[in-house]
Structures are given as C-alpha cells and as structure tokens.
C-alpha cells in the first residue's frame, strides 16, 4: 500500500511541477524557459523509470507524451533565444503605460463518456457454470445482471485501500440445471486488490448472498451465497476489461439446490 500511495503522490507532484513550468512561461525570457524545461525533463525521466519498473504503463505513456510536447516547446524557445541574441541593442524609448492583462479563459475540461444511453449508470452482465456433478451437463448454467455502486460507506480508506477499491453489486439472475430452475436476487461486495499484490495483475475478490424469489416448487427458495476471486483483462474487443472468476456458489430453490465450483465471465457496461 505504501508503494501505491507513493506512486500516486509522485504523479500528483509531477503534474504540479508541469503546471508551474508552463503556466508561468509567458512572463519569462526564452533562456529561462529552457532552463526550467531541462530541470523538468530530468524529473520526468526519473519518474518514467520508476513507474516502468512498477508496471504502471498507462502513467508511463502519459509522461512520455508530456516529455514529447516539452521537447517541442524547447525547440521553439531555443529559436527565440537565438533570435533575441542576434538583435541589435534597442534605443531606450519613453515608457508607456502597461497594457492591462486580460484574464485567461478557462480551459475546457474533458468529461468521461456518460455511457451508452447517457445515463452514467455502471452495470455488469455475467454468465456462469456451476459444477454440481448431476444432470445432463453435470451442473447448472446461470446468467446475471447487476447495478454496480461505488463505496458509499467509505470502507476503502478505513481498511487501508483507495476510495475506489470497494464496490457493491445488486442484481437479479436466472439459474437452470441439475433439477433447479431459479430466479435469484443478489447482493455482493467487490474488493479490487492493489496491482502490486499480484505481480501487476488487476485482480479482485467478490462475494455475497442470494435469495431465490421464484424457483422449483410452489414456495420461494432459501438464502444462498457465492464467493470468488477474479482477474480483469482487456481482450482487445473494444469492450473494456473483461472479468474471469473462479469460486464457489450455492443457489437454493425450495427442495432443489445447485451448489459447487463456479466459473464465471463478466463484462462491465456503462449505461
């Protein structure tokens, strides 16, 4: 955790230094701009090396882009410095009243896409296979849809994780197989583990309870549960990161029960 917090602090520090170098550049001579940019490049190179070793390639890409744009500015400032040195001394003129500085218009802030329908609601769909050892396919198939909620309780910082490390899922599903037909509702929690705990891989733990509101038999089922460990990875299909989970689950539908080792594939979708 200390390593993650350190990386976040370093990145914020680099962004702050970048703003100080370039936001005030208009009031300095080209030579001063060059010296500031050289110091900034040295700092960038050090941070790129550290982040590359830590496997933070997305941050490395952002800093390399910043470095490229800084080098382009340095070429312009170098040309301005050479031109100013070649100009003959200027004859002092009568001072004039300073031109009032106009306020700089605020830069437009780019916003993340609100989702497929502009609702800004995070959801997740998944499919699972529960190995029960009975039935024609030796198990049961399940599909599920969830609404994904951020950590509104604030448990992440309390347990030493980031504010976005914990999420909650509320959903409904359908289970069929091994003599079970069930329509359960789910209430699960998700803990996104720090990448450095699993050699840079994006892993998570998930688990919770389910209750069959309608299933095999005349009466509703009973309370069941599920727990799993998952891995998020980008398959290059333009859908974002897909989750692959291995765990155990039980769904009870009156006198029938589907329980066993579970393999699941989930796909987050923003609406």
Write the layout of secondary structure elements.
Blueprint: H1 2-23, H2 30-53, H3 57-86, E1 122-131, E2 139-150, H4 155-158, E3 166-177, E4 180-192, E5 202-215, E6 223-234, E7 241-253, E8 256-270
Antiparallel strand pairs: 1-2, 1-8, 2-3, 3-4, 4-5, 5-6, 6-7, 7-8
Classify the beta-strand content into a percent band: 35-45%
Q: Helix coverage percent of residues?
A: 25-40%
Sheet of most strands: 8 strands, antiparallel, barrel
Q: Report the end-to-end length measured between terminal Cα atoms.
A: 32 Å
Mean pLDDT, to the nearest integer, reads 81
Radius of gyration: 28 Å
Q: Helices and strands: which structural class?
A: alpha+beta
Q: How are the strands ordered across the major sheet?
A: 1-2-3-4-5-6-7-8
Number of β-strand runs: 8
Low-confidence stretches: 6-26
Order of helices and strands: HHHEEHEEEEEE
Please report the number of helical segments.
Answer: 4
How would the global form be characterised?
elongated
Could you explain how this protein is built, in words?
- This protein is α+β, with helices and mostly antiparallel strands and 271 residues long.
- It has four helices and eight strands, in the order H-H-H-E-E-H-E-E-E-E-E-E.
- It has helices spanning 2-23, 30-53, 57-86, 155-158; strands at 122-131, 139-150, 166-177, 180-192, 202-215, 223-234, 241-253, 256-270.
- Strands 1-2-3-4-5-6-7-8 form an eight-stranded antiparallel β-barrel.
- A hairpin with a 2-residue loop joins strand 7 and strand 8.
- Helix 1 (2-23) packs antiparallel against helix 2 (30-53) and helix 2 runs antiparallel to helix 3.
- The protein is elongated.
- The relative contact order is 0.12.
